[in-house]
Amino acid sequence: MRLLVCSVCMFFFQINLVAQKDSLVFTNNNIMVGEVKALDKGVITIETDYSDSDFKIEWDKVKELYSQSTYLINLTDGRRLNGTISSVDYPDWEIYRITGDTVVVQRDEIVYFKSYEKDFWSRVSASIDADYSFTKANNFNQIGGRANIGYTAPKWWLKASYSILRSNQDNVDPVKRQDGDLSYRAFLKKDWYFSSVISFLSNTEQLLNLRANLKAGMGKYIIHTNVSYLAVEGGISGVNENFENRVSNLNSLEAYAGSELNLYDIGDWSLLTRLIVYPSLTESGRWRIDYVLDTKYDLPLDFYVKAGLTLNYDNQAVEGAADVDYVVQTGIGWEFN
Predict the structure, then answer these.
(1) What's the domain count of the chain?
(2) Number of neighbours of residue 69 by Cβ within 10 angstroms
(3) Could you count the other beta carbons within 10 Å of the beta carbon of residue 241?
(4) pTM recorded for the entire structure
(5) Contact 214/207 with Cβ under 8 angstroms?
(6) Secretion signal: which residues (predicted)?
């Protein structure tokens, strides 16, 4: 009987060793064994059997990594690889590509990686947040929310987002605003990419029933590290607009140029800012600006608090409409990666 018990224990111990196939060695030489799932925004995530929650460790605290998992990997020079990662000879790290060759890199050349399984859900990320505010003095109340979902493949990603805002107060017309977009990005060599976006905006402040926008262009990451990126982009945009005080829709063609800065390793904080300018090609002298500023503070269990500013400017706003509209939102949310 004792022999049988020992054999069963050894069997489960061996199973556990097989399951715990990845390991991290930290700069203080401590070791953690589990399943290394991802490196994103300067934080590496590992799942272990002895905790219900994943561990999140700052990337600069990791000295060595050994894994048998297959990852989708981004490097600072723009290369996107599929393979396994091992730090065989510190400070050199080796990426064993599924094509059969080996790429030698330094740790800080690795910007991002994520376990790349064949199932659909391993490639999906999503977030949702909501906010509410109330002021008794003028019976002001505001409710809003945002949702995002994305799918990442080896050479492209697809993302969708939606935002809504409703506010009411005494003796003032209700404010209604909603916007959304569907974005596709194909990654090219040397950190270039092709971008295509379908977006819409509805905004009572600018008497805008609907602005539908289809744009396509090229972009490049000027800075691309595991703590931040800076990208610039430009192209052509086709616009269809319907205003409350116009009988017919307005169709126009615009150029666009913009930049995006993402700082995602400021402790538990992250910051994203984006500015896009749209000079019209068909309406003389008209130009528009879209600006976004978002900051987020990470909480346990994948919750976060978030504050953001969204601004739209049109130098030839229709009669009776404001040329500038902006929204400041704060709220709490949850994300899935």
Answers:
(1) 2
(2) 17
(3) 19
(4) 0.78
(5) no
(6) 1-21
